[in-house]
Amino acid sequence: MKLHHATPLGLALLLAGCLGTQGKSGEGSHSGETGLAIAVAANTGGQTDIAQMRYSIDRVACADGEKIDALNRTITVKLESMMLPGGIEAFENSALDENSEHPFADDFEVLPAGCYNIDAMPLTKDGAESTDCAPAWARGIEVVDGATSEVALISQCKGAAVGALDTLVAFNRPPTLELVKYMPSKFISEGDTDVICATANDPNGDPVEFSWTNVGPACDKPIVVANDTAGKSTTQCVSLTATMAGSFMFEVSIYDLLHDETGKLIRFETWLRDHGYPNASHDSLRLPLYVAANPGHEPSGDPDGLSQP
Questions:
Q1: Among 131, 141, 162, 292, which is 20 to 30 Å from 198 by CA?
Q2: Using CA atoms, how far apart are residues 28 and 21, in angstroms rounded to an integer?
Q3: What pLDDT is attached to residue 215?
Q4: CB 105 within 8 A of CB 125
Q5: How does pLDDT run across 118-139, given as a tens digit for each residue?
Q6: How far apart (Å, rounded) are the C-alpha atoms in residues 249 and 217?
Q7: Domains 2-156 and 176-307 fall in the same CATH topology
Q8: pLDDT digits (tens, 9 = 90+) for 262-307
Q9: 250 and 215 in contact (C-beta within 8 Å)?
Q10: In 3D, which of 272, 271, 275, 268 has the Cα closest to residue 208?
Q11: Arithmetic mean of pLDDT, 143-160
Q12: Given this model, what pLDDT does residue 160 score?
């Protein structure tokens, strides 16, 4: 048996086989002819679309100027049911590792002595060219009288589609209201202006947003007159002018913020809601304000008793 070293796609297998001169096609003895055994192992790395192999065998001149009779054969065979090396000692570690498992196709042809080019194209079960596995080929393989030339090729297949998923979970805590100051006092008289300052700390150092709302009788929203951040603490001050006597209540809420996909600062609560798991992330406190009647003050006509300065 004459063995040939073939180089398909930069890879080669040289298998010491034990095939005779009879095989799947061209069975029987043919005077003056010999055999060519072509095995193609698919290095799949997983499931592929291959189900069969199409071989094209073309006779070529062994030397420049040699006159030959043209010969071309195209054969399609199904994959073998076993794997290579499959426990066959002659195929182990030559070149496939003895513990590996490779699907393969095999074709045996009786041919006139001479030289041949071989092309092997992996096909799907419907006969279409594989999109998973590449063709393999060998050139100038010599077949000599009375011997079988065995050629082993490798069809390199794509690997399984694999990526990675990296899931990071950051822990967030809401801000905490630390301090409230009335300047001059939460007890004022009609016509007086009061300033209320709230200080909040965010344990994660996030920027914060204050929201001031009326509780009870409606009145205009307080006017922000100061906003200062120092470390993880932020203080915001609002100003109110009393226009009539009464008891009033405000609520201050502090929300921590993050950047959305566009870079805009939004509340953590908004981000969590938009991503499907709404949770609260704020602190709030109701703040009273008491306005005493001032006999010398002329009412402004504001029914709520408080107006913007």
A1: 292
A2: 8
A3: 80
A4: no
A5: 999 999 999 999 999 999 999 9
A6: 8
A7: yes
A8: 999 999 999 999 999 999 999 999 999 999 998 766 655 454 455 4
A9: yes
A10: 268
A11: 93
A12: 79
State how far the Cα of 153 lies from the Cα of 131, in Å rounded to an integer. Answer: 18
Q: Does the pLDDT of residue 24 top 60, yes or no?
A: no
pLDDT at 146 exceeding the cut of 50: yes
If we measure between CA atoms, which residue out of 200, 305, 164, 308 comes closest to residue 244? Answer: 305
Tell me the residue type at 265. Answer: L
Q: How far apart are the first and last CA of the chain?
A: 107
* One-character DSSP codes across 138-206: EEEEEE-TTSEEEEEEEEEBPPP---------------EEEEEEEES-SEEETT-EEEEEEEEE-TT--
Q: Domain ranges in the chain?
A: 2-156, 176-307
Q: What is the secondary structure of 211-228 as a DSSP string? A: EEEEESS--PPPEEEEEE
β-pair type (176-183, 2-3): unpaired
The owner of tokens 């001032």 is: 294
From CA 159, how far away is CA 132, in angstroms rounded?
8
The tens digit of pLDDT for each residue in 252-268 reads 999 999 999 999 999 99
- Measured from the Cβ of residue 72, the count of other Cβ atoms closer than 10 Å reads 10
Q: At the top level of CATH, which class does the domain 2-156 belong to?
A: mainly beta
Domain at 176-307: CATH code: 2.60.40.10
CA angle 191, 197, 201 (to 5 degrees): 165
Give Cα 8 to chain centroid, integer Å.
33
Q: Where are the beta strands (DSSP E) in the chain?
A: 2-3, 33-43, 52-60, 72-78, 104-112, 114-123, 136-143, 148-156, 176-183, 187-189, 193-201, 208-215, 223-230, 233-242, 246-259, 265-267, 282-292, 306-307
